[in-house]
Amino acid sequence: MISAFEEAYLNNIIDGYGARLEWARTGDTTCPSKLDDVAKRELVPRFASVVADLVERELIELTEPTFDRWDGTEPLPGERLHDALRDPASWVDAPDGRRRMVVVTYTETWDRLARSE
Predict the structure, then answer these.
(1) Considering the entire predicted model, what is its pTM?
(2) Which long-range contacts (CB under 8 A, 24 or more apart) does 109-117 make?
């Protein structure tokens, strides 16, 4: 949810997780992730499942803006959403350097829940 609040890219989430693992191990919050690309790719199905659940519960949305169209990009629907979640290039740079720039943002539903007491 922190990533959604920050309007982060999916390809930053697993690195953030890896960094937090290092922080927990070392106590040093300046340590970067030590996960290599193979380890990151192994985590994609689990992270994709969690993100799909959050989308289904209408707590977050995923968009895939382009250089010429950032504002007003619609949330990814149905099969396009699942394609983005299954594509390792959404999470980790591909060996050829290709990556998908999929943005995760929070929804009004999350905002209402976060503000309720």
Answers:
(1) 0.86
(2) 109/57, 109/58, 109/59, 110/1, 110/4, 110/59, 110/60, 113/59
Residue type, 52: A
Q: Look up residue 32 and give its DSSP letter.
A: P
Position 69 scores a pLDDT of 60
The predicted structure's pLDDT at residue 76: 94
3-state secondary structure of 5: helix
Residue 67: pLDDT over 70: no
Q: How many CA atoms lie within 13 A of 85 on its CB side?
A: 22
- Of 117, 55, 58, 97, the C-alpha closest to 80 is 55
User: Which position has the token pair 């193979």?
Assistant: 38
